[in-house]
Design a protein that fits this description.
Blueprint: E1 8-12, H1 21-33, E2 36-40, E3 44-45, H2 52-68, E4 74-77, E5 80-81, H3 90-106, E6 110-116, H4 124-139, E7 144-149, H5 161-174, H6 179-193, H7 206-209, E8 210-211, E9 216-217, H8 219-234
Parallel strand pairs: 1-2, 2-4, 3-5, 4-6, 6-7
Antiparallel strand pairs: 8-9
């Protein structure tokens, strides 16, 4: 398939805290091949586990299971909200933050998180959602950020490099940030975009917000990106 041993081979646990033979067979084959293994699990906030506290407990247990039962090299989390289908909402980030801090404080395992935004490319909302989660993940001790699946990852051509750029820049800006300062900044950012949950801005597909032949963003998207940086700066982020 063209994959190298150094590439990450990814498989998913079942919700919630379940395994099946297909996962065990896949993992066994990868171990025999000496591959690097990433196991993901996205517990549902408001689903089988219940509320925030219960889902955080489930998230911690799922993470430990990736290493104790499947001998993973990295765990890829991503609490997903049963109503919004995103990882960038306030409740999902509360679960992700508590989970990451608990594990980072008490273990040396490698933690990652997935990014599913409500808004799509070429919108300020999408970039602010991305920045908020990147700040949250970085301040709480995650080592790897995996994104961005815009528009909840369910629409074609709704991904571009600009969202990943924001994820990286926001993460670097949050490095070393005090957790209490990060929490105040996050409250300002999330309060900005969550009022648009029932009226999300119209996104643009990759081919409509990029110069495809050059793989570069359009001037419109660059302007939107700069506007997002201004809003984030007003919320307390120093880029």
């Amino acid at each position: 398939m063209g994959m190298k041993h150094s590439d990450l081979h990814e498989c998913s646990q079942l919700n919630e805290l379940k395994m099946d033979m297909s996962i065990l067979n896949m993992i066994s084959a990868w171990h025999l091949s000496g591959d690097n293994i990433l196991v993901e699990q996205m517990p549902i906030v408001g689903g089988y586990s219940g509320g925030l506290e219960e889902t955080a407990i489930c998230d911690v247990a799922s993470t430990i299971a990736s290493f104790a039962l499947l001998n993973a090299d990295i765990h890829l989390g991503g609490p997903i909200h049963i109503r919004w289908g995103t990882t960038t909402n306030r409740q999902s980030m509360q679960v992700a933050a508590a989970t990451a801090m608990a594990l980072d404080t008490n273990t040396d395992i490698l933690l990652a998180n997935q990014y599913y935004t409500l808004a799509g490319p070429c919108t300020v909302m999408n970039l602010l959602e991305t920045a908020a989660q990147a700040i949250c993940d970085t301040a709480c001790g995650r080592e790897l950020l995996s994104g961005v699946a815009s528009n909840k990852g369910v629409r074609m051509d709704m991904v571009s490099g600009m969202e990943a750029r924001m994820m990286g820049e926001a993460s670097m800006a949050a490095c070393g940030m005090d957790i209490h300062d990060a929490n105040q900044i996050l409250d300002r950012i999330v309060s900005w975009y969550e009022k648009f949950y029932f009226n999300i801005p119209q996104p643009k597909k990759f081919q409509d917000c990029y110069i495809v032949d050059e793989i570069t963003p359009t001037e419109e998207y660059m302007s939107i990106y700069d506007s997002s940086l201004d809003i984030l700066s007003n919320c307390g982020i120093d880029f």
